Amino acid sequence: MRLKTLRLHGFKSFADRTTFEFREGITAIIGSNGCGKSNIADAIRWALGEQRASAMRGAKMEEVIFQGTARRRPLSFAEVSLLFDNQSGRVPIPQTELDLARKVFREGGSEYSLNRTACRLRDVQSLLRDTGLGANAYSIIEATMIETLLSDRAEERRSLFEEAA
Amino acid sequence: MRLKTLRLHGFKSFADRTTFEFREGITAIIGSNGCGKSNIADAIRWALGEQRASAMRGAKMEEVIFQGTARRRPLSFAEVSLLFDNQSGRVPIPQTELDLARKVFREGGSEYSLNRTACRLRDVQSLLRDTGLGANAYSIIEATMIETLLSDRAEERRSLFEEAA
Amino acid sequence: AREVFEATFDAVRSNFTRTFQSLFQGGECDIRLADPNDPLESAVEIQASPLGKRTQRIHLLSGGERTLTALALLFALYLVKPSPFCVLDEVDAPLDESNVGRFIRLLYDFKHETQFVVITHNPQTMESADWVYGVTMEEPGVSSIVGVELLGARDVPLPTAPSGA
Amino acid sequence: AREVFEATFDAVRSNFTRTFQSLFQGGECDIRLADPNDPLESAVEIQASPLGKRTQRIHLLSGGERTLTALALLFALYLVKPSPFCVLDEVDAPLDESNVGRFIRLLYDFKHETQFVVITHNPQTMESADWVYGVTMEEPGVSSIVGVELLGARDVPLPTAPSGA
Ligand SMILES: Nc1ncnc2c1ncn2[C@@H]1O[C@H](COP(=O)(O)OP(=O)(O)OP(=O)(O)O)[C@@H](O)[C@H]1O
Ligand SMILES: Nc1ncnc2c1ncn2[C@@H]1O[C@H](COP(=O)(O)OP(=O)(O)OP(=O)(O)O)[C@@H](O)[C@H]1O
Ligand SMILES: [Mg+2]
Ligand SMILES: [Mg+2]
């Protein structure tokens, strides 16, 4: 169930339509401080259904929408899509590709779609349930997640074992 | 008010009597993961009067005492002393040197001394009050302090301004 | 449900020893259920002791040791239930040079099951990736991709670029 | 007490702009009292926007930008009330290469007032120190000092050690 393509448009600092093609193995993402690397990790977590604004380092979820710069006006929406290879059939759908997309508008409301057909968050969550890719799963790791894995409040660690069971 | 010498004995991983001579300018401390570098920063903070075990990354303050290794027995005490140059008279004492020491025993009790004369924690705190060196002052910076300087709960940031006033 | 959880827990536990010893080149570690009588609710406790050190609570570990322990646990979970992909955001920042090498070797061991996206500033990690994406903000405040470099098959020496390239 | 605090606050505020612009090579920043009518109790708010970006709450800043902003505030405080010494524990870890250079230049600007002890894994920082202490655990679990190296006066090239030294 390989991640083939990530597309961002209006998500955080990615004002323009931007496409990342991913391949097998190890892909490094490099660049100077503040250039937008962690925003890519946020975009993946968001497209997988993340509901907490704090996990996007924001106070409100609408802060994921491009807020403008000294020379550009803010946008009114943010959109991210993830294209997976489903040849292995790991996701229980007939298609050999899974195109998962999420869109949010400044005045509120989130839209989800699976293979370009509108659906609800619940549909996304139940589809991803056994793949290890749920929004809270252990597939995006940064400093706060390291602390969670080791934290004394062990109930967060417990949920990782449940996810793996 | 330069820091001239740091002496550790039985403090965390410094089981043997160890002396650091410091000079003017920038001193780098290097070494592999887990070798004891942050324990040096902890020793300085502790000798300046730190009362919170959590600031020593421990649950109980007695965890600063060398707990033994596969080949060495635990020690029964920990001792740290800081020797400052007081030629500038910044600390209101007649001597041109200030030797600040703290010792803790495994069965409890902390001893403080100034220039080898026993004193109380209150004496240490009032002596250091206007030097910018109080235990909670902004002279030891690591990742959690960076978060404190930027934190939304701004009362911690406020206390830094009071310290500078 | 109880049997499934216990079976998963035991599998992660034995994997944890393997991944921990490969990252720490020895040492001992363990995970235990705080309340073995109630596996479905019990918290999970971690113990870790690098080579030669006494077994200790994980909060006494150094910054780098904590990161390595968390990574060992993460990969122990992946051995039980592989995640199709994994994003690692600057997890190599606290590691010294030789531990960065061990981290990279662990990625190599897993890269046939899991696709890795590694965000990093560390040249050692950059050089060991199969693909490198650069992100930039040529226009201030707007992120864009600079270009993908195929570092290619490891065993083929990269042609030395003509100087000045 | 009120006048003293307000005078200190104004001094830190104008220093903050100077230290921030030297670390970020431009951009805008500010600190404000949340409740200017009650300076002795009010919280202190921080705003920061790197070059070309919109002024934003500091939680949207990247990892490296947050560290630089915190360091700018710390040194703005030091300009008002210098601390005799300062320990910095791996504060350079989130910084990219050019920001490590700016961080080092800031240390150089302050090293005549403040003695710095910098714990680091970054070769760039190690090389710019005046003195380097190595810490090791030759005996597992017991820290000791390996030796002090005088990097000495910057302008005198180090004698090249005979190879194999
Ligand atoms: N909604 C938004 N609109 C525009 N820009 C945004 C938005 N949210 C965040 N940003 C910008 O993204 C930048 C941070 O990007 P990010 O955290 O990805 O950096 P990074 O490449 O990970 O840097 P570092 O190496 O320091 O971790 C901030 O400077 C901020 O200006
Ligand atoms: N009371 C104690 N007795 C013996 N050893 C201790 C004690 N407290 C801490 N330690 C040891 O100190 C080590 C951690 O040292 P420290 O945090 O200084 O490492 P470090 O050099 O900062 O490493 P890093 O580069 O990973 O940050 C731990 O591995 C722990 O075993
Ligand atoms: Mg980042
Ligand atoms: Mg450390």
Structural class of chain A: alpha+beta
**Counting H and I runs of at least 4 residues, what is the number of helices of chain A?**
4
Radius of gyration of chain A: 16 Å
**Major sheet of chain A, described briefly?**
6 strands, antiparallel
> Largest sheet of chain C, if any?
3 strands, antiparallel
Span between N and C termini of chain A? 19 Å
Give the SSE order of chain A as H and E letters.
Answer: EEEHEEEEHEHH
Written overview of the protein:
The complex is a heterotetramer, with two copies of chain A (165 residues) and two copies of chain C (165 residues). Chain A has 165 residues and is an alpha+beta fold. Chain A has four helices and eight strands. Chain A has a six-stranded antiparallel sheet. Chain A is globular and about 50 Å long. Chain C is α+β, with helices and mostly antiparallel strands and 165 residues long. Chain C has helices spanning 2-24, 63-80, 97-110, 123-128, and strands spanning 28-33, 44-49, 56-57, 85-89, 115-119, 131-139, 142-150. In chain C, the strands form three sheets. Chain C has a three-stranded antiparallel sheet, covered by helices on one side. Chain C is globular. Mean pLDDT of chain C is 87; it is low at 153-165. Chains in contact: A-C, A-D, B-C, B-D, C-D. Strand 8 of chain B pairs parallel with strand 4 (85-89) of chain D. The complex binds adenosine-5'-triphosphate (ATP) (2 copies) and magnesium ion (MG) (2 copies).
Give structural attributes:
heterotetramer, A: 165 residues, alpha+beta, six-stranded antiparallel beta sheet, 4 helices, 22% helix, C: 165 residues, three-stranded antiparallel beta sheet, 7 strands, 37% helix, disordered C terminus, binds adenosine-5'-triphosphate, binds magnesium ion
